[in-house]
Amino acid sequence: MCGIAGIYNYKTNQPVSPKSIESMCDVITYRGPDGYGYHYEGALGLGHRRLTIIDTHERSNQPMLSQDSKTSICFNGEIYNYLELKETLKGAGVSFNTTSDTEVLLELYRNTGIDFLNQLNGMFAFCIFDNKKQDFLLARDHTGIKPLFYTFTEDGIAFASEIKSLLQIDDVKREVNKSLIDSYMSVGYCPTNNTLFKNIFKLEPGHYMTIKNGEVEIKQYWNIKYDKSVDKGEEYYIKETQNLFEDAIKKQLRSDVPLGVFLSGGIDSSAVVAMMHKQGVKDIKTFSVAWDYGDKFNETKYARAVAKQFNTDHTEYFMTAEDFKNFLPEYIRHMDEPVTEAAAISLYYLAKKTKEKVTVVLSGEGADEVYGGYPIYKYMHVVEQYKKIPSFIRKPILNPILRMLGTKWAKYADLSEMPIEQSYSGVSFYENSQKNKLYSKKFSEYVKNNNNQAKLKQFYDYTKNDDLQTKMQYLDLKTWLVDDLLIKADRMSMAASLELRVPFLDHRFIEFSATMPSKYRFKGYENKYILKKAMEPYLTEEILYRKKLGFPTPLSIMFKGELFDFVKNIIDSEISHARGYFDQTEIKKVLGEHKKGSEDHHRILWQLLVLELWHREYID
Fold this sequence. Notes:
- This protein folds into 3 domains: 2-220, Aminohydrolase, N-terminal nucleophile (Ntn) domain (Glutamine Phosphoribosylpyrophosphate, subunit 1, domain 1, 4-Layer Sandwich), CATH 3.60.20; 234-372 and 475-544, HUPs (Rossmann fold, 3-Layer(aba) Sandwich); 554-620, no CATH class.
- It is 44% helix and 16% strand.
- The protein contains 28 helices and 19 strands.
- The chain has a 6-stranded antiparallel beta sheet with strand order 2-3-1-9-8-10. Strands 4-5-6-7-11-12 form a 6-stranded antiparallel beta sheet, with helices on one face. The chain has a 5-stranded parallel beta sheet with strand order 15-14-13-16-17, sandwiched between helices.
- It is globular, with a radius of gyration of 24 Å.
- The model has no long low-confidence stretch (mean pLDDT 93).
């Protein structure tokens, strides 16, 4: 696990400035505190920060050159099936100088070509350059676990694990991509390949970029293929889930340094612990975080129960409002873009605590997207049923009643009047009328002329012949998971120099789930039905069938109490108003209603706070 950075001046063939590469790496030292390296050849410059996991010897430092020095690689991530791939390559006569997965990746490319991407099981973002052929390749893993950003310069292209590295380059400007402000306000992050920085982009999951003879080409090498035409029966899907999960855990336990588990006490992380225990792992180290704001924000009793069941070495950490406030500047800096994932802050503190004992940690991230675990899925199914009520009853009678019950119910009344393609934009979507009230008159006109709903159309087009559950899960796999959850997981773990692995995002799980009829993922309004059935032999009913919490954050309470003045002074300031995005009167109204408790506006306040702090950190 590492941080990578590079510049390829393919337009001008000018030599790369070592100062530029070094500064790009220096700002992400925390991603790889165990070592660093640079490689320059002609118009190419590569930089690497290393967190040693596999083959901790310096012989595996990067950038790494092939044995004939004709091909170089700069790699961030882990190839979990590298041992199997290595044996195949040895059978073809390839020799190795290290025991690292980096060298396996390099030699696999040299022996297979671009098709080698389809053989990889892992999380990765890397650059490979063939000096003889002058072939340049960037690639990102199937589901986007590892980040990869790029920007085009006057001389060529620059890329890195984090945006802040690209901002070290002199001709990369810090400009706001204002067309994405509405996307951010709609879902709390910036979806698809664009970022909130103008002219800085993400290489999307399952894609690669090649540059040859000055021609840039981006292609998709992997996507989810839905085919649920054959129903093999519940027992088959239960058994296959168990087999796939066990193999994913087995492969992701490969490490030359100590590892542990983030344990929330929910089904996903508890399943990881259970499967490690089944495979005979001794002295499992588990780590939990909670807020001392009552049971609603504290899952530690469930985590303790799992820790006790499997006799783990368990560590807990409790957060305070002061911790939250103090870390906010670092949170904004580490995330690079505004992302309203409040759980990231508690995750960072947990990662710091975890790093004291281990260097690698497994988590349950991704199970909700693969097996359909979010409560919003239930609500959207209810909305679809509600739509079946004749419109002459629903619109003039029922919808007005719902709107009288408050913003939550009004939201679902509004959703019932729209097709799914318009009503559902992801797990974290916000109610549009509430959001639109915040915009200033001028910016509201701008938003109308720069509607980003079309960005999601490609995902709905892909699943146009599929059922509601599949449509929602595919959208969330391509947006919410990639641009919110996995950004949070990567940034907060790497900020603590900790590698985080996500076995549920083994791409074989996703491919398998895509062949499973939706009734096994979502059955009788029971989320993650087949996963729960698969884990029944290992986990208690209390863990399997309790209400989902995750890593909840008491924003509503803190923004009404200890942190109200802090939030108000930032979002209701002259600096914030001068940006011209929002109506000052409406912001004061939202603050007042939240303080009085007449409305719960914590999500809006959090969005506004993060966006303003991001501007102050990266733009002003």
